[in-house]
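Morning, I've got a small favour to ask if you have a moment. I owe you a coffee for this, so here goes:
>
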Amino acid sequence: MDIGTSGIEKIKDRALSLAEEMTRLRRGIHENPELSWQEFATSRLIASKLEELGLEPRIGVGDLPVGVTADLEGGAPGPCAALRADIDALAITEENNVPYKSCKSGAMHACGHDGHIVILLAAAKILSEMKESLPGRVRFIFQPAEEHGHRSGARGMINDGVLEGVSSIAGLHLWSDIPAGKVQWKAGPLMASSDAWKVVFKGKGGHGAMPHLAVDATLAAAAFIFALQTLVSRETDPLETIVASVGKLEAGQVINIIPESAEMSGNVRTFNRTIRDSVEERFRRLAEGVGATYRCGAQVRYDGVYPYPVVNDGALTNLFRSTAARVVGEENLREAAPRMTSEDFSFYQAKIPGCFFFLGSGSEEKKSTVPHHSPHFDIDDDVLPTGAALMASFACAMLGRQRFSE
């Protein structure tokens, strides 16, 4: 669909007219956060807003009444393009002193998902008002449990058929370390895969004064911490990127007893699927080898949390870039550097072409440059209309799969 410069200007103007409504709704959602797979009220709210647009939303993933999808039928035949927003909050107690502070202890929208919800709802409103000119269908996906990890909301929605008939998908993430209103994009790898691991070294406990009668599992754990980095420095092409981290280590309870076991866990991240798929076997070999060297057994668990990196389709990302230039201006675009953080948007991209991009929400004046997942995190509400205009305009572009013209 080629809506031209005047069409994009109309989308931008309509998005700006929704600014006050978007801010009010975002702050209401922020005040009432719900954790992964508990987004019951949030899902009902989203569905009610979509019903107001004349759509027929469907609530539910598996057996749980969370997550919402709705289709907007255009006035002419064409492909189906999907727009996705995540809707869950984090298990963090908010420390901001704002009127819309989370009313729940231990739950907070500390990653911008409240903003993602209202951006997609506003895009749905804009596109609904121009549906007769749309060649095809737009599927709105409000996904639960992005933050859950092992039980990803994207995986659940895909299993329920959310991508059936969809030719391409787009996702937006507000980002606090990018200046408000700036847009970052990148073709190819953008965010890393994430695997979780756990190793338990089993030895033989004993008194600290008689180490020769014990088998010290802590020595095996210490040796493994150093050996783990050889997966990066000596078994991976130095031109590739891989991060192997130890996040937790537990051994013993008192100072004069050599513990029987040492338990450690961490994660591995990379942008390369081939490398990612080879790491588990190498990891197990290394852990078991270190255990044997120190006379310990090694119990290894290795799980793919987000087994796919976020890899943006080249043609689709080029289309987004040209669209975004019309929305925010060339001066507000910058190619993103890859980030080692992970996102379950990657599950969609493993199935169909997708483009994931960042919209800056950082403002020193608005105190919104705090890192994500901080109890002081917040966003600059002034960027919400820009997000809605980007998503609505890109949906039009995806339906046509061609650049906008004058």
